[in-house]
Design brief:
alpha+beta, Jelly Rolls, eight-stranded mixed beta sheet, 9 helices, about 25% helix
């Protein structure tokens, strides 16, 4: 039976290392990836104190005055680093759909430590390993975020091993494709909404993610995360204490020739009677492969009757195209091309 709701999966048996436990978790994840592209994980081993500390210091950053936050604003559309104010992005633009700017602000970093080696600094590396923009206050944010990055990186490696098992590729299949990954960690702050949103305006408009997978710590507040199931219905992603929401990105859908789904999702506005007590944060680790990794249909996912649907493309090219579409709006919350 096809899953129509987002399942909750305990991945502790996979971490336990026994063959039966690994197989059971891989089978559950495989069904979720084929049916809805979203699942919530428990038993992941991430210290909740690290998550709580990151949530708290991020909230304190967003509480700082706007003019202070703007001192580390993103400086280019193709560089996803630093602070981005509300209305600056419209995620639906990445799908070619026009709409007003999303009702969120964000702070984003990339890899916090970059080796002094040609791979990371050559022309082909582009902007993937540029320096992060750290705020002066809170002073502890940098150290706290790096600890969270390390935890998410290890969890992402685990998820990629689970995916490899689920696809019968061999547990270590992705290892050489993710050892120099170009991931991003972003915290989104969705403020209270004293004023009604514009028509077709969301906290985060409907979009799919661009990478291999996304790990998200979400908060239980009015106006939450929703995923679209196979019947085209929006369903709530459950908020489970000390758990993470996982969704596939476009890379995985392209690799599997649409066998696995990179699901549309969005963050909806709160009901008007709860809009003044609806502030929420999402802490999101976007896991991307190495920039030169080729995204090309797995042989087992294509045949003469089901040829590859997507032309091969590198991670770098795929990401850049979508980043530029996503950020093609002006400060008023409209597309730059729509400005008078």
């Amino acid at each position: 039976m096809t899953l129509q709701q987002v399942p909750v999966i305990d991945i502790a048996p996979f971490l336990g290392g026994e063959r039966d436990g690994k197989a059971r978790v891989a089978a559950e994840v495989k069904q979720a990836c084929e049916d809805i592209g979203f699942f919530v994980i428990t038993g992941h081993g991430v210290d909740p104190a690290v998550t709580e500390a990151t949530h708290g210091v991020s909230r304190r950053f967003f509480d700082r005055p706007l003019e202070e936050k703007m001192t580390i604003e993103r400086w280019a559309d193709d560089v996803i680093r630093g602070y981005s104010p509300a209305l600056k992005e419209c995620l639906a633009e990445s799908r070619g759909e026009r709409g007003p700017g999303d009702l969120k602000e964000s702070l984003t970093i990339g890899p916090p430590f970059v080796p002094d080696e040609p791979y990371y600094h050559c022309a082909e590396a582009g902007q993937h390993f540029v320096e992060n923009r750290w705020p002066a206050r809170p002073a502890e944010l940098k150290e706290t975020w790096i600890a969270y990055w390390d935890a998410m990186e290890q969890l992402a490696f685990t998820l990629m091993r689970i995916f490899a098992c689920a696809l019968d590729l061999g547990e270590d299949y992705f290892e050489t494709r993710i050892d120099k990954h170009v991931s991003q960690f972003r915290v989104l702050n969705y403020p209270d909404q004293p004023d009604p949103p514009l028509d077709n305006q969301f906290r985060a408009s409907a979009h799919s993610d661009f990478g291999a997978c996304t790990i998200c710590a979400i908060e239980d507040k009015p106006g939450g995360l929703q995923a679209m199931n196979r019947d085209g219905e929006w369903v709530d992603v459950p908020v489970v204490p000390n758990a993470f929401s996982i969704n596939l990105g476009d890379q995985m859908q392209m690799w599997t020739n649409d066998m696995w789904v990179s699901t549309l999702h969005r963050v909806v506005n709160p009901p008007r009677d709860k809009a003044n007590d609806s502030r929420r944060q999402s802490m999101i680790f976007f896991f991307y492969t190495n920039y030169d990794c080729m995204i090309e249909c797995f042989p087992a996912c294509q045949s003469a009757d089901n040829p590859a649907k997507y032309p091969p493309v590198t991670t770098s090219k795929n990401l850049l195209d979508k980043f530029l579409m996503m950020t093609a709006i002006g400060a008023s919350g409209q597309r730059a091309s729509d400005q008078p």
